[in-house]
Amino acid sequence: MQPKEAIHVADLFSIRGKVALVTGGSRGIGLMIARGFLEAGAKVYISSRKKDVCDDVAKQLSEVGECISLPADVSNAAGCAGLAQEVASREQRLHILVNNAGAAWGGTLAEYPESGFDKVIDTNLKSVFFLTRELLPLLDKAATPADPARVINIGSIDGIKVPFTENFAYGPSKAAVHHMTRDLAVKLAGRNITVNAIAPGPFESHMTKWMLENFQESLEKQCPLRRIGCPSDMAGVAIYLSSRAGAYVNGVVIPVDGGICIT
């Protein structure tokens, strides 16, 4: 049955008044999305492990819009539950969840440690499942047939193609995020919750610092658009997926990489 709610085309990309949570929101991709949401009129909670950093970034972002710091470690189920409880103590509903918190671990094939593998899987994959599950009551309350609640998982083009760096857990963790996105999209659609993933290519962040310092020129040559991503590229696709314009998009993985993964 089609939604009966009509919307003017000028409002298609509006997220004004929505409430969002962005994990890993104090830097990199998460910060780009959080700032974009705030500039678009949403109320944004950001979360990261380091309280001082999270608090400081939220204070800076509050000059743009309403931003609240909720420090948490989402690499374990208890941390996910605690973060969900903190959001629930402040909000009756959550319109947008961005599962962005991530980790990487570089090492040679011969020396790659189990501890590094576990850290990457726990942070990149398990957190997506457990935090989404814990926040379902708040997402349910925000969801309508015309404007579903949104879950946006941050994957990577390294989960689509084989990366050239020795980071053996990272690519598989992101490929798993992409498939979990599809799984959750099917399971939650009946509750008017859509689940999609963004697969970024190279953007400036703490995680990509070493790679860009050493390989930015070659990465730009590989990219059909001949550049790395900028904050508006990431904010734009996240706002699209969160707005009425993206209400019928579900279970997809959108590469935001200038075409690198198809070359």
Structural class: alpha/beta
Question: In this structure, how is the largest beta sheet organized?
Answer: 7 strands, parallel
What is the share of helical residues?
40-55%
Would you state the CATH class?
A: Alpha Beta
Give the integer mean of the pLDDT values: 94
Cα distance spanning the termini: 40 Å
CATH homolog superfamily = NAD(P)-binding Rossmann-like Domain
* Order of the strands making up the biggest sheet: 3-2-1-4-5-6-7
SSE topology:
Blueprint: E1 19-23, H1 28-39, E2 43-47, H2 51-61, E3 67-69, H3 77-88, E4 96-99, H4 114-142, E5 149-154, H5 170-188, E6 193-200, H6 209-222, H7 231-242, E7 253-256
Helix pairs in contact: 1-7, 3-4, 4-5
Describe the structure.
The protein is an alpha/beta fold. The chain has one domain: NAD(P)-binding Rossmann-like Domain (Rossmann fold, 3-Layer(aba) Sandwich), CATH 3.40.50. The chain has helices spanning 28-39, 51-61, 77-88, 114-142, 170-188, 209-222, 231-242, and strands at residues 19-23, 43-47, 67-69, 96-99, 149-154, 193-200, 253-256. Helix 1 (28-39) packs across helix 7 (231-242), helix 3 (77-88) runs parallel beside helix 4 and helix 4 (114-142) packs parallel to helix 5 (170-188). The longest helix is centred in the middle third of the chain and has 29 residues, at 114-142. It is globular and about 55 Å long.
